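Quick one: co-fold with 2-phosphoglycolic acid.
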Amino acid sequence: MKIIKVENYETLSKKAAEIIAAQVAEKPASILGLATGSTPVGAYQELIRMYKRGEVDFAGVTAFNLDEYHPVKKSGDQSYDYFMKEKFFNHVNVAKTFIPNGEAADHAAECENYEKLVYESGGIDLQLLGIGNNGHIGFNEPADHFPAATHYVALDESTIKANARFFENESDVPKNAITMGIRTIFKAKKIMLLASGAGKAECIKEMVGGKITPKNPSSILQLHPDVTIIVDKDAGRLL
Ligand code: PGA
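Sure, here it is.
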């Protein structure tokens, strides 16, 4: 794992945006794997600025998002579909975007379909990840095994609590989601994980140096051949 420690969230966001822009410059038809959550928002803002200055062009890019709540109305402001449009897609020229369908009546069929779409795309060139306080990547929650493919998942109590900040009431947080699995994520040639703030210090330490166990899903990243972790001072303080 390559670890890049930076001073603060602003520098982290700039560094992440630079790496994504460099990927797109090197391969204009890149397949990007994207993430939601508060951590990547600064990188998206920076990429929007770069796009407006003509420093990056997403015209050939296809994007696959990691996960989506289920059930959720796509047009509702709690969906990840809405989040990605608001925070990124509406402001840049990404050619094709895919997010698991939170409105799918048959979630099992949607999981199968999404997995197939990722594979048929030829595989993700650069996958962006955040990390949950419980060590989740995407919505691969702590479990007794590593789920391989895109799957339907019951969200962990700790994830529901952590995500309640985006909802009026904790009881409004959807209880389920569709997420890429570990094999889906590992199909990415390169992975870049971002973490900011003291609250992430413990899970970053465990991810980098702890036991590889499905109880801490992020620990499996120790086995991927090309992972870059960008942490700010607070998130990296135990490394
Ligand atoms: P956060 O979420 O960026 O909002 O901390 C990360 C995650 O849950 O993967």
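If it helps, Residues 37-39, 130-132 surround 2-phosphoglycolic acid (CB under 6 Å).
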